[in-house]
């Protein structure tokens, strides 16, 4: 009979995890200095929101607000990101803000996933979204220095955090690593040709199921062929996502089939997700509804749309925003192998 694993709070296990947790504390303090030096105001949005977000593959945790007599008042969700609240603060007049705090996502568990984790999310109003790319490069170096490390590492793959990141368009990555001409399957209005992509995915040697949609196929190629090749030697900024994969981003002015969205990768690990923010409430509503239609088809559920957010978008200036997973950054800077090693008090995941 195997010996049950000791809980995270057992002194012996804590002693093993403590070096990673000390690195976490140092990195977090360095990030706060990083943002303060750049005139960001740290804000603290409520974790309880009217909607957890409207991305089809994100799952929120729901609760019910009750009055003093115990009667239900309204449903609420633990946010999957502080994004909606931060955009309302941009509408209110804030121009550089950062939120550092817990976010919550159901159906997430694994070496790099946990149902509660810490997100570092920051916004720049009236600045181009390329400024976020410069932020990312400086932030990687800041984290490594705070951890006393000259490299980021995960599963044997290393990155020099002091080298400038490579900037790579999604379409170029699909061509380079999978031989797929992605943009031929996307129209300027954002509609997609599922069958055309399916033929290319099959030719690349990947499985295609009868009920796979365009987004399913996109995700399969990204996971199997693209992500493992990103962030080797130096970080990668995977840029210019196709419109169907960028529900909260504005269109790229040079290529209407793509959007101002990038993700930051190091050691094959996605660290951050950035947008040139979409501020057209009519287009945003249409994208939210399309995303929830897909969520209902895939998972049999929908998340509500935050009507206050749509009202606020009319007041949001041209802005850019980015969300970074603190624990993943700490893992790479400290050499941890699992996210539980860099969480002070991991959520119990064993079934009852």
N-C termini distance: 20 Å
Q: Work out the count of structural domains.
A: 1
| Rg over CA atoms | 21 Å
How helix-rich are the residues, as a percent range?
A: 25-40%
Strand segment count: 13
Largest sheet: 8 strands, mixed
CATH topology: BirA Bifunctional Protein, domain 2
Give the rounded overall mean pLDDT. 95
So what's the CATH class?
Answer: Alpha Beta
Q: What structural category arises from helix and sheet content? A: alpha+beta
Q: Which runs of at least 5 residues are low in confidence (pLDDT < 50)?
A: none
CATH superfamily: Bira Bifunctional Protein, Domain 2
H and E string: HEEEEHEEHEEEHHHEEEHHEH
* General form: globular
CATH architecture: 2-Layer Sandwich
Widest beta sheet: strand line-up:
1-5-6-13-12-11-10-9
The helix tally amounts to: 9
List keywords for this structure.
alpha+beta; BirA Bifunctional Protein, domain 2; 352 residues; globular; 35% helix
Verbal overview:
- By secondary structure, this protein is α+β, with helices and mostly antiparallel strands.
- It has a single domain, classed as BirA Bifunctional Protein, domain 2 (2-Layer Sandwich), CATH 3.30.930.
- The chain is built from nine helices and 13 strands.
- It has helices at 11-37, 83-92, 130-147, 170-178, 194-203, 214-226, 281-299, 307-313, 326-334; strands spanning 41-43, 48-49, 61-66, 72-78, 96-104, 116-125, 152-154, 157-159, 166-169, 236-239, 261-266, 269-276, 319-325.
- The protein has an eight-stranded mixed β-sheet, with helices on both faces. Strands 2-4-3 form a three-stranded antiparallel β-sheet, with no helix packed on it. The protein has a two-stranded antiparallel sheet with strand order 7-8.
- Helix 1 (11-37) packs across helix 3 (130-147), helix 1 crosses helix 9 and helix 3 packs across helix 9.
- The radius of gyration is 21 Å and the shape is globular.
- The two termini are 20 Å apart.
